[in-house]
Design a protein that fits this description.
The chain has 188 residues and is of the alpha/beta class. It contains eight helices and seven strands.
Length: 188
């Protein structure tokens, strides 16, 4: 079995932590794992992409077009940009949040309309307001772990293993809030 996961978002949304959690769960299950570095303008609010691939033998962390089994999208426009990378049988988990990119902020372009409905017409999509759930958990910065919870539910991997990995991966002072966020996503 091989799995390719693409994580897309905007700088500051926690794509790197998410890739660490996904990579660590695969390692715990005994798979060969490759996790990419962050690609993009992570420090400036720009587009960020990370990749996690795991299986019996993985030679490259890069996910090519049409190769992703799953895409975790932390922002709508980034979800739409990542669409070509998803397999036709893949699933995209999408946070419904909109974050204006610089051309929209400056007034040069408008934020595209109806992205979610366009995605749902083309692929298998699980969409949610992860930001509201993260706030409910106690910290808006945990939206990434809400999405991890949704992914965990459909992954077929034992929930207790996910909880163990989150405890091992997240800084100690943020464990409780991240576990609450995970539970909210998992139980969605």
């Amino acid at each position: 079995m091989k799995r390719s996961i693409m994580i897309v978002g905007v700088g500051g949304q926690g794509t790197l932590l998410s890739s660490r959690i996904l990579g660590n769960i695969a390692l715990k299950l005994g798979f060969d794992v490759k996790v990419s570095e962050v690609h993009g303008m992570s420090q400036r609010g720009g587009s960020v992409v990370t990749y996690v691939k795991y299986g019996d033998n993985v030679y490259s962390p890069i996910v090519e077009e049409g190769e992703a089994d799953y895409i975790l999208a932390f922002e709508l426009l980034e979800a739409y940009r990542a669409l070509p990378f998803l397999k036709t049988t893949g699933t995209m988990i999408v946070n419904e949040q909109e974050i204006d990119p610089m051309p929209v902020i400056t007034g040069a372009l408008e934020y595209p309309k109806d992205i979610l409905s366009k995605l749902k017409n083309k692929i298998n999509v699980i969409s949610l307001d992860a930001l509201s759930l993260a706030k409910e958990a106690g910290n808006s910065k945990c939206a990434n772990v809400v999405l991890i919870g949704v992914f965990a539910k459909i992954s077929g991997i034992d929930k207790d293993k996910w909880i163990e990995v989150i405890k091992e991966t997240v800084k100690e002072k943020f464990i409780d809030v991240n576990l609450k966020a995970f539970e909210l996503g998992y139980n969605l």
